[in-house]
Amino acid sequence: MNSPDEPLEVSDARCVEHSRDGSPEDFRLLVQRYQRPLFAFLAGRLGNASEAEEAAQESFVRAFLSLKKLRKPESFYAWLLGIACRVTRERFRDTKRREQVRAVAETLQAAAESGPAAEYPLEEVIAALPESYRRVILLRYYEGLSCLEMAERLAMPLGTVTKTLSRAYALLRQELRACERAEQSVNNTLNP
Amino acid sequence: MNCTECRDTVAADLEGLLAAELARQRREHLAACETCRAEDAAVRRLHERLAAGARDAQVSFVAPVMREVLRIQAEKERQSLMIKSMIRWVLGLGAAGAAAAIVAISLLAPSKASAKAEEILIRGAEAAANLHSVHLKGLMRTPPADNFMAINPASDFAAIEFWWQWGSEVPQAGATGKWRVEKPGRVALMDGQTTLLYLRPLNYAMKVARPTLGAFDTGWLVRIASLSQALTNELENAKAKGWQLQVSAETGADGRPKSIVTVLAKSGLPDNDYLKNKFFDLADTRRVYRFDDGTAHLEDVAVSLTTDAGDVKVIELSQIDYDEDIDPSVFHLDLPANVQWDKEPQILPDNQKYVAMTAEQATQAFFKALQNSDWTEAAKFCPFPFNQQIRDAVGGLQIVSLGQPFTSKVNEAQFVPYSIKLKSGDVQTNNLALKRDPKTGRWFVDGGF
Question: Of A47, B62, B313, B345, which one's alpha carbon is 20 to 30 angstroms from that of B80?
Answer without folding.
Answer: B62
